[in-house]
Amino acid sequence: MADVRRAAAEVFGAGLSRAERFAALLERHGVERGLIGPREVDRLWERHLLNSAVIGERIPPEVEVVDVGSGAGLPGIPLAIARPDLRITLVEPMARRVEWLTEVVDDLDLDVRVLRGRAEEKAVRAEIGTVDVVTARAVAPLARLVGWCLPLLREGGMMLAMKGASARDEVARDADAVTRASGGTPTVSECGAGLVEVPTTVVIVERIRPQASAHGKRRRNTVGVRSKRAG
Prior knowledge:
Blueprint: H1 2-12, H2 16-29, H3 44-53, E1 64-68, H4 76-82, E2 87-92, H5 95-108, E3 112-116, H6 122-128, E4 131-137, H7 142-149, E5 153-163, H8 167-180, E6 187-191, E7 200-206
Protein backbone atom coordinates (compact mmCIF):
# COMPACT_ATOMS: atom_id res chain seq x y z
CA MET A 1 0.00 0.00 0.00
CA ALA A 2 2.92 2.33 0.71
CA ASP A 3 4.10 1.95 -2.88
CA VAL A 4 0.60 2.72 -4.14
CA ARG A 5 0.46 5.86 -2.00
CA ARG A 6 3.83 7.04 -3.30
CA ALA A 7 2.75 6.41 -6.87
CA ALA A 8 -0.55 8.23 -6.30
CA ALA A 9 1.27 11.25 -4.86
CA GLU A 10 3.58 11.35 -7.89
CA VAL A 11 0.89 10.81 -10.52
CA PHE A 12 -1.80 13.11 -9.09
CA GLY A 13 0.41 15.73 -7.46
CA ALA A 14 -1.66 18.67 -6.29
CA GLY A 15 -4.81 16.76 -7.27
CA LEU A 16 -4.21 13.91 -4.82
CA SER A 17 -7.02 14.98 -2.49
CA ARG A 18 -9.44 14.96 -5.43
CA ALA A 19 -8.25 11.50 -6.42
CA GLU A 20 -8.80 10.32 -2.85
CA ARG A 21 -12.31 11.77 -2.93
CA PHE A 22 -13.04 10.01 -6.24
CA ALA A 23 -11.78 6.71 -4.80
CA ALA A 24 -14.04 7.20 -1.76
CA LEU A 25 -17.05 7.84 -4.00
CA LEU A 26 -16.34 4.71 -6.03
CA GLU A 27 -15.85 2.67 -2.87
CA ARG A 28 -19.11 3.95 -1.38
CA HIS A 29 -21.35 3.87 -4.45
CA GLY A 30 -19.55 1.97 -7.23
CA VAL A 31 -20.88 -1.51 -6.56
CA GLU A 32 -24.46 -0.57 -5.66
CA ARG A 33 -24.75 1.56 -8.82
CA GLY A 34 -23.28 -1.13 -11.06
CA LEU A 35 -20.13 0.82 -11.90
CA ILE A 36 -17.55 -1.66 -10.61
CA GLY A 37 -17.62 -5.25 -9.44
CA PRO A 38 -17.41 -6.17 -5.72
CA ARG A 39 -13.88 -7.53 -6.14
CA GLU A 40 -12.64 -4.18 -7.48
CA VAL A 41 -13.17 -2.22 -4.25
CA ASP A 42 -9.92 -3.41 -2.66
CA ARG A 43 -7.86 -2.54 -5.73
CA LEU A 44 -9.34 0.76 -6.81
CA TRP A 45 -6.05 2.63 -6.83
CA GLU A 46 -3.80 0.25 -8.73
CA ARG A 47 -6.37 -1.23 -11.10
CA HIS A 48 -8.52 1.82 -11.82
CA LEU A 49 -7.27 5.25 -10.72
CA LEU A 50 -3.54 4.88 -11.33
CA ASN A 51 -4.09 2.54 -14.25
CA SER A 52 -6.16 5.28 -15.90
CA ALA A 53 -4.14 8.35 -14.96
CA VAL A 54 -0.78 7.10 -16.23
CA ILE A 55 -1.93 7.18 -19.85
CA GLY A 56 -1.42 10.92 -19.53
CA GLU A 57 2.23 10.12 -20.33
CA ARG A 58 1.20 9.74 -23.95
CA ILE A 59 -0.94 12.90 -24.16
CA PRO A 60 0.58 16.28 -25.13
CA PRO A 61 -0.17 19.36 -23.00
CA GLU A 62 -3.31 21.47 -23.30
CA VAL A 63 -5.15 19.37 -25.87
CA GLU A 64 -8.79 18.37 -26.19
CA VAL A 65 -9.65 14.82 -25.11
CA VAL A 66 -12.83 12.77 -25.50
CA ASP A 67 -13.29 9.70 -23.30
CA VAL A 68 -15.60 7.31 -25.17
CA GLY A 69 -17.79 4.98 -23.12
CA SER A 70 -16.63 6.61 -19.91
CA GLY A 71 -18.79 4.45 -17.62
CA ALA A 72 -17.59 4.98 -14.06
CA GLY A 73 -15.37 7.80 -15.32
CA LEU A 74 -12.41 5.68 -16.32
CA PRO A 75 -10.00 6.80 -17.60
CA GLY A 76 -11.51 10.29 -17.98
CA ILE A 77 -11.91 11.36 -14.33
CA PRO A 78 -8.45 10.27 -13.08
CA LEU A 79 -6.95 11.81 -16.22
CA ALA A 80 -8.74 15.09 -15.56
CA ILE A 81 -7.45 15.11 -11.98
CA ALA A 82 -3.87 14.29 -12.91
CA ARG A 83 -3.82 16.57 -15.98
CA PRO A 84 -5.92 19.71 -15.34
CA ASP A 85 -4.41 21.26 -18.47
CA LEU A 86 -6.52 18.94 -20.64
CA ARG A 87 -10.01 19.82 -21.91
CA ILE A 88 -11.96 16.61 -21.37
CA THR A 89 -15.39 15.45 -22.50
CA LEU A 90 -16.88 12.24 -21.11
CA VAL A 91 -19.19 10.44 -23.56
CA GLU A 92 -21.52 7.81 -22.09
CA PRO A 93 -24.83 6.42 -23.46
CA MET A 94 -26.42 5.08 -20.24
CA ALA A 95 -28.53 7.59 -18.30
CA ARG A 96 -27.66 6.23 -14.84
CA ARG A 97 -23.96 6.45 -15.60
CA VAL A 98 -24.34 9.95 -17.02
CA GLU A 99 -26.03 10.89 -13.75
CA TRP A 100 -23.07 9.44 -11.81
CA LEU A 101 -20.51 11.23 -13.97
CA THR A 102 -22.33 14.54 -13.56
CA GLU A 103 -22.45 14.09 -9.78
CA VAL A 104 -18.73 13.29 -9.64
CA VAL A 105 -17.73 16.23 -11.83
CA ASP A 106 -19.77 18.55 -9.61
CA ASP A 107 -18.54 17.01 -6.36
CA LEU A 108 -14.88 17.24 -7.40
CA ASP A 109 -15.35 20.66 -9.02
CA LEU A 110 -13.75 19.49 -12.27
CA ASP A 111 -13.84 21.49 -15.50
CA VAL A 112 -15.11 18.48 -17.45
CA ARG A 113 -18.04 18.15 -19.83
CA VAL A 114 -20.40 15.15 -19.68
CA LEU A 115 -22.24 14.23 -22.87
CA ARG A 116 -24.87 11.52 -23.13
CA GLY A 117 -24.77 9.47 -26.31
CA ARG A 118 -22.70 7.06 -28.37
CA ALA A 119 -19.57 8.06 -30.24
CA GLU A 120 -20.98 6.73 -33.51
CA GLU A 121 -24.16 8.86 -33.37
CA LYS A 122 -24.36 11.80 -35.76
CA ALA A 123 -25.61 14.14 -33.06
CA VAL A 124 -22.69 13.29 -30.79
CA ARG A 125 -20.18 13.74 -33.60
CA ALA A 126 -21.74 17.06 -34.50
CA GLU A 127 -21.56 18.22 -30.87
CA ILE A 128 -17.94 17.18 -30.41
CA GLY A 129 -16.53 18.03 -33.82
CA THR A 130 -12.95 16.79 -34.06
CA VAL A 131 -10.47 16.66 -31.21
CA ASP A 132 -6.84 15.87 -30.50
CA VAL A 133 -7.12 12.65 -28.47
CA VAL A 134 -9.78 10.00 -27.91
CA THR A 135 -9.48 7.52 -25.05
CA ALA A 136 -11.37 4.29 -24.44
CA ARG A 137 -11.15 1.62 -21.76
CA ALA A 138 -12.72 -1.82 -22.11
CA VAL A 139 -15.26 -0.53 -24.62
CA ALA A 140 -15.02 -2.80 -27.68
CA PRO A 141 -12.63 -4.82 -29.85
CA LEU A 142 -10.20 -2.69 -31.84
CA ALA A 143 -11.98 -3.23 -35.17
CA ARG A 144 -15.19 -1.69 -33.86
CA LEU A 145 -13.47 0.88 -31.70
CA VAL A 146 -11.62 2.57 -34.56
CA GLY A 147 -14.89 2.94 -36.46
CA TRP A 148 -16.39 4.81 -33.53
CA CYS A 149 -13.38 6.80 -32.35
CA LEU A 150 -11.31 7.81 -35.37
CA PRO A 151 -14.05 10.00 -36.92
CA LEU A 152 -13.87 12.12 -33.75
CA LEU A 153 -10.19 12.88 -34.36
CA ARG A 154 -8.65 15.60 -36.44
CA GLU A 155 -5.94 14.56 -38.85
CA GLY A 156 -2.86 13.76 -36.80
CA GLY A 157 -4.89 13.13 -33.65
CA MET A 158 -4.59 9.84 -31.82
CA MET A 159 -6.73 7.21 -30.19
CA LEU A 160 -5.47 5.66 -26.95
CA ALA A 161 -7.27 2.37 -26.34
CA MET A 162 -6.54 0.77 -22.99
CA LYS A 163 -6.16 -2.95 -23.54
CA GLY A 164 -4.99 -6.03 -21.67
CA ALA A 165 -2.41 -8.71 -22.36
CA SER A 166 -4.01 -9.60 -25.70
CA ALA A 167 -3.33 -6.14 -27.18
CA ARG A 168 -0.75 -7.32 -29.72
CA ASP A 169 -2.96 -10.19 -30.88
CA GLU A 170 -5.82 -7.73 -31.32
CA VAL A 171 -3.63 -5.35 -33.32
CA ALA A 172 -2.55 -8.17 -35.64
CA ARG A 173 -6.12 -9.40 -36.07
CA ASP A 174 -7.70 -5.97 -36.71
CA ALA A 175 -4.96 -4.22 -38.71
CA ASP A 176 -7.05 -4.15 -41.90
CA ALA A 177 -10.02 -2.63 -40.08
CA VAL A 178 -7.77 0.11 -38.72
CA THR A 179 -6.56 0.95 -42.23
CA ARG A 180 -10.13 1.05 -43.58
CA ALA A 181 -11.05 3.48 -40.79
CA SER A 182 -8.25 5.84 -41.91
CA GLY A 183 -5.94 4.89 -39.08
CA GLY A 184 -2.18 4.61 -39.21
CA THR A 185 -0.22 1.56 -38.14
CA PRO A 186 -1.26 0.69 -34.56
CA THR A 187 1.44 0.62 -31.92
CA VAL A 188 1.34 -1.00 -28.50
CA SER A 189 2.83 0.95 -25.62
CA GLU A 190 3.07 0.67 -21.84
CA CYS A 191 2.38 3.54 -19.47
CA GLY A 192 3.35 3.91 -15.83
CA ALA A 193 6.45 1.72 -15.89
CA GLY A 194 8.29 2.21 -12.61
CA LEU A 195 5.20 3.72 -11.00
CA VAL A 196 2.65 0.93 -11.02
CA GLU A 197 3.24 -2.76 -10.49
CA VAL A 198 1.56 -3.67 -13.78
CA PRO A 199 2.00 -0.96 -16.45
CA THR A 200 -1.06 0.03 -18.44
CA THR A 201 -1.09 -1.32 -21.99
CA VAL A 202 -2.46 1.03 -24.63
CA VAL A 203 -2.97 0.65 -28.36
CA ILE A 204 -2.19 3.93 -30.10
CA VAL A 205 -3.69 4.69 -33.50
CA GLU A 206 -3.09 7.94 -35.35
CA ARG A 207 -5.84 9.42 -37.53
CA ILE A 208 -4.50 9.92 -41.04
CA ARG A 209 -6.05 10.97 -44.32
CA PRO A 210 -8.03 8.33 -46.22
CA GLN A 211 -6.02 6.83 -49.05
CA ALA A 212 -6.84 8.52 -52.36
CA SER A 213 -8.35 6.17 -54.92
CA ALA A 214 -7.76 8.31 -58.02
CA HIS A 215 -4.61 9.43 -59.88
CA GLY A 216 -2.44 7.27 -57.66
CA LYS A 217 -2.33 9.88 -54.94
CA ARG A 218 -0.36 8.82 -51.94
CA ARG A 219 -1.70 8.95 -48.42
CA ARG A 220 0.03 11.54 -46.25
CA ASN A 221 0.71 10.96 -42.58
CA THR A 222 0.91 13.77 -40.06
CA VAL A 223 3.05 13.54 -36.99
CA GLY A 224 2.04 14.55 -33.50
CA VAL A 225 -0.97 16.26 -32.02
CA ARG A 226 -1.44 20.02 -32.15
CA SER A 227 -3.16 21.89 -29.36
CA LYS A 228 -5.88 24.39 -30.15
CA ARG A 229 -4.00 26.82 -27.97
CA ALA A 230 -0.74 26.33 -29.84
CA GLY A 231 -1.69 28.96 -32.41
